Amino acid sequence: MTGFTFTFDGRTCSAAPGDSIAAALAAAGQGALGHRRSGAPRGVFCGMGVCHDCLVTVDGRRGARACMVKVAPDMDVRSENDRAFSPGTVPPPPPTEEVAEVEIAVIGAGPAGLAAAIQAAGAGASVLVLDDRDDPGGQYFKPRSDGCRMARALDRQHRRGAALRAEAQCSGARIVTGHSVWFARRTEAGFDLRSLGPLGGLRVRSKAVILAVGAHERPAMVPGWTLPGVMTIGAAQTLARRYGVAPGRQVLIAGHGPLGLQLAAELLALGTRPVALAERGRPGFGASALSALTAAPRLMGDGARYRLAVLRSGIPVMTGWEVAEIHGAEQVSGAVLRQIATGRSRTVDCDAVAAGDGFAPQIELARLLGVPVTADPETGEIRPVRDDAGRSPVPGVWIAGDAGGLGGAEIALCQGRLSAQDALAHFGHPVTHRGDADLRGLARGRRFQSALWSMFKAPSRATPTGDTVLCRCEEVTAATARAAIAAGARDPATLKRETRVGMGRCQGRYCLPQVLRLLNEAGQSVVPEALFAPQIPARPVTLGALALEKPEWGGHRQSSPSVRPNRDPDAPLSVAAADLVVIGGGITGVTAALFAARSGASVLCLDRGQVNGEASGGNAGSLHLQLLSWDFGGKAVGDGSLQLRTLPLQKESIALWRDLERELGADFEMAVTGGLMVAEDPGQISFLEAKAAAEARVGIHTEVIDGARVRRIAPEVSDAVIAAAWCPGEGKINPLAATPHLARAARAAGAVIEEHAPVRGIARDGKDYVIDTARGRVTASRILIAAGGWTAAIARMLGCSVPIRGAPLQMVVTAPAPPLVPCLLAHAGRHLTMKQTAAGSVIIGGAWPAATGAAGQPEILPDSLEGNLWVAARTVPQTASLHVIRSWAAMNIDIDGAPLIGPLPGAPGVTIAATANGFTLGPLMGREAAAAALSGRLRQDLGDFTMTRFTQATEKEPT
C-alpha cells in the first residue's frame, strides 16, 4: 500500500502505511493537537497512551489517542478542545462484550509478557495476552511500521523482537492487541478482568494473572514542560524507530541514562542532527564500565556504536547538564540548559525537546488487585512487592519485568519465563523448564543495571517550584501544592482533595512521585496506604463503551463499615477536657464545631481519619430541593411524609450554605442552577405532577414543563425526554472545597479538630463522659455524634441502639468536557443524578450501590458502574463521547429516608445528627445539633426527626 492522505482540522496531510496519527502529524510539522480547559495547547508527550495529552476527534469519535491510533485514508482528524466539541462529534456506538475463560491472563505483550505466554502455553496452559498497543513487542521490541521512513536495515533489537513475536504467535497463546484493561479484581474463583478495544469489550475470567505492563517515563518537570513539542525520550524514539519520523527539525535531547544516546544515533540515521545531547550524569569508563561490559557485552557494544555515531556527527554532548526551562507559546521555541555542578546556564534554539528523568513501574493494576507497594519518599518511586520469580503477596498474581521496577529487556525476558514457570507450578502443571538459566540471567542483568547506573550516577533533580506545573492534567502548579502542604495537607489524599492534583486523565501517574517528594521535604512521612487510591477505570475509557443497561437496584446494600487504614497515631490529644466533643469530621461535624465554638463553648472535634475523608468528601455535591424519584410514591420508605417534610429544611440549608460562603469570603463553587427531573413517558409525567403537587403543599416550588422548554434549559438532553419537573432552587457545590473552608473557620473560632483519633470507647463518669481514643482520653459533659455510617457503632459504646446503617454508594466523574449539563439533572423513572463542575467534569451518580470489600471498605461494582453510565448516556447522549477518568465508592447512610437529629435515649447529654441527604442538609444539621447539644433543647419543627419516631413505632407494635 502506498502513501495516502487524510485531513487534520480540514487541512490535507500525507501519511505512510502504518503511521499513527501522531507520527503522520509530526511528519507534517503539526505539534499542537488540542487545548486544555485553560486554553493552553497540548500535544504528544508520552507516546505510549499514558498521558492522554494527544487526544483528537477521529471521524466524529471523541477521545482518540493520536499516539495509539493508526491513521487511515481519508480519515477526518480534528483537534480536541476541553471547552468545545469538534464539528460533527457523535456518540460512539453501543458496546459489545465477549467473555473468555483461561487459566492464565497475561497483561502486557512486551518482552516479559510474551516470554511468559510462550512458556505457559508451551506447557499446555490456556493463556490470553492483552496489550494496549496494536502490535506486540512493547516499548523495547516495537516493530517498524509498514511505511517506516527509516532507510537502514533492521538492527539486532528489531530482529530479536520479530523472532519473539513469531514464537509467541505460534505458541498457542491467544494475543489480543489494542485492548486497555480498565478493571481488575480478585474473586473467590480467581480473577475478573475487563478490557476495551476498538470492536468492543472483553471480560476475562482467569485463575492467575501475570502483570507485565512495563514502565512509563518520568518527566523532567521544568517550566514549559507541558508545551507541544516537549515529549519523553521514549516518545521521540517511537517516532524515530517505529515510523522513521523525527519529532522536529531542531531537536534537543536532555535526559539521564543511555536512552538519549540511542535516540541521538537514530535521529542521525533519519538525517536529523540534534542540536545538543544533555546528559545529567557524567558517565565514566572505569570499574563500573568494565563490570557492565562483563555482564552484558552486546548491550555495551550497542552503546559504544551509538556513542561513536554521535561523536562523529559533531553533536554537542554535554555531560553533567540538565534542561532547566523550556520556552514557547503554542510550540517549543527554545530551552535553557543548566550545568548541575556550577549552575551555569546556556540557551539553545530548538523546536522539539525530548526529555526524561528515569522510569516508574506501571502499578495501577497491581494495586487494584491488592498487591502491596513500597514508596521511597526521597525519590518518589513506588514499586509493587514481588520476589525474583515475580510472585506477589497476592495468591495468583505475578509481576514480571519493568512492571515491578526498571530492569530492562533482558531481565524482563528472564522474569517472564520465571513467572510463568511459578504460575504453572501453582496450578500443578508439569514444568519442563528448570529456570536455572533464567535465574543466572536475572542475576547477570541486575549486575549490568547496577553497573550502568553507577556509570550514569547523578544527583536527583530538584523538586518543582513556583509556577512550574506539577499536575499537567489539572494544571496545578508547584506553588499551589506547596501552599497546601504548608497549610496542613499531610498526605497525598488530602493534597489531592485540596488542590485537584492527580485528578486528571493520567490519574496521578506523573505527579504522585513529586507529591511524595514534596511531602518528604516538608517532614511528612507517607505510608503506602495514604497514596492516591487506585482508580477504576485503570485508564480513562470512553463512557459510551462502558454503558450497558442493567437492572435498577432494589434498595441499599446495607453494610457495617470498617475502619479505613490510617497512619500511626500522632502525638497525644492537645486537650484533655471540653464542653462538647463532636465525633465525626464530616460536613455535619465540622459545622457543629464551628457554631458551638462561636457560642463560646470549648469544642473538640474527633475524626478517626481525616476531615472530609469519608462520605462528606466522597459525595457528588448535589444541592437537592425537590424529592428524588425514590423518595416519593411507591418507591419511598414508609408513606413518604417524612421525606416531604424534610424539604423545607433543605431549602433553609441551601440558604445557609450561601450565607456561609459569603460570610467566610470563600469559594465553595456553589451555584443554584435549578434542577430538572426528566420524564420519558406519560406515566412518569403523572408521577412528576403528583410529586410537584405534594411539594407545593410544603412550600417548595416545582413545575412540570414540556420537552421544548426542557431543551431550552438543557439543549443536550435526549429527544426521548418529553417533560420534566423544574425546580429553580436546586444546585451544586464542591464538597472538596466547601468542608475544608468550614473546618478552617471552626479552628479560627476556637474549636480543636483532631484527625486520626478513632474513638475506642465511651464511659460514664458521674455527669461527664470519658471518651477513649487512639491518642488519649478526653472528658466532656456533652457529646455530639455526627459519624455518618459509623454512628451506630459509636452509639453501641454507650449501650444504645440506633437504626442507622451503612449504605455504600458509588459515583463516576468524566474528564473536563464542553458545557453539557447546565443544571442539576435527575430522572423520574431511573436512578440518576448529573451535574457539571466548574472544572468541566461531569459527575454522575444516583444511589447506585457499591459493594463492601474484604477489608470492609466500599468498592466499585462494575454492574452499577455500567448501568449508571447507561442511564446517563440515554439522558444526555453526548456524555457517551466523554472519557471516564475515575469512579469511587463512599459510605452513605440509610435510615428511613429522613434525617435523624436530637437526644440519644438512655444517654443524657448525648445528641445524634445523621442524614442520608448529608451534604445538602449538612450545615443546618450541624448548626441545630450543636444548639441542641449545648442547650438541651431542639428546635420545635425538628421534633418529627428525633429518635422518638422509632420508639413510638416500637411501642405501637402488637405483642
Report a brief summary of the structure.
With 959 residues, this protein is an alpha/beta fold. It folds into seven domains: 1-94, Ubiquitin-like (UB roll) (Roll); 97-216 and 361-431, FAD/NAD(P)-binding domain; 219-357, FAD/NAD(P)-binding domain, CATH 3.50.50; 469-538, no CATH class; 540-565 and 805-893, D-Amino Acid Oxidase, Chain A, domain 2 (2-Layer Sandwich); 570-672 and 731-803 and 895-959, FAD/NAD(P)-binding domain, CATH 3.50.50.60; 675-728, no CATH class.
Descriptive overview:
It is built from 24 helices and 49 strands. By secondary structure, it is of the alpha/beta class. The strands form eleven sheets. It has a nine-stranded mixed sheet with strand order 29-47-41-44-43-42-33-35-34, sandwiched between helices. Strands 30, 31, 37, 38, 39, 40, 48 and 49 form an eight-stranded mixed sheet that branches. α4 runs parallel beside α5 (259-269) and α5 packs across α7 (297-313). The longest helix has 24 residues, at 641-664. The chain is globular and about 90 Å long. The termini are far apart. Mean pLDDT is 93; it is low at 954-959.
